[in-house]
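Standup notes, structure subgroup. Blocker cleared on the zinc ion input:
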Amino acid sequence: MLARRIPSILPCMNRQESLEVTKIYSIAGLLSERGKLVQERPFRSPHHTVSSVGIVGGGQIPKPGEVSLSHRGVLFLDELPEFSKSALEVLRQPLEDKEVTLSRSKITLSFPSDFMLISSMNPCPCGFYGYEEDRSCTCTPHQVQRYRSRISGPLLDRIDLHVEVPRVNFETISSKSVPESSEEIRSRVNQARQIQQERFKESATLCNSGMVPAQIRKHCELDQDGKGLLHQSFDRLGLSARAHDRILKVARTIADLAGEEKIQVAHVAEAIQYRALDRKFWG
Ligand SMILES: [Zn+2]
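Run returned:
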């Protein structure tokens, strides 16, 4: 449910983005009305039986795959460990390059694939690992290990935020408190995006997640406390260099959402929290 709501808090697509998405849907034969511009960010949730060709695209006359159909939008993979190893491995290159290159004997084609990957998984095959209340996990340690090892470290490294979602109890579901609306959240997101547009106006980078190493050094400077905390967690969690850069980018975004010019130690701490899976499963 959370994943499906993400497009509702993303900034609206600008004309350029609309055109890009429309072109892809046109090539894929998925435009419902000819000449109509796609204006909603795509949300794709392929079944876990999808092939690697289904993910990246292909065929005799190459067609865009799920990573391109979710360009400028969200690709949601529910129950991530259920997807085939090959389907998960082919995700890495488009995640990194934001485009897919398909080679055929006569031609080489590129499709854009700048999408937000969202995925969900259980902590173990039965789903009750680490559960405190009335039910306990019936899996053997070997089963748990095998299930988790389906997600490779390199893929996990490329995911910025890992969030544990505890079961929602009845009191919360039935409570009358009014949650913040998507519109309100979207306006905060838009403000943070404006800060980033200003920051990157003289480069090809669109937002914080696209920062190259030189930009990370320039825009993600930490004070002594922040540096200390990151150093400490780096050693303790055994983070990769890639995870290190991701923490800095996420901390920058958290600071932008808070309207702070400088990244503070609390922003770093929050960003580190989102590496939950490095700590718990693979750390
Ligand atoms: Zn279990």
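Discussed briefly. The chain has two domains: 2-121, 183-282.
Next: hand off to the docking folks.
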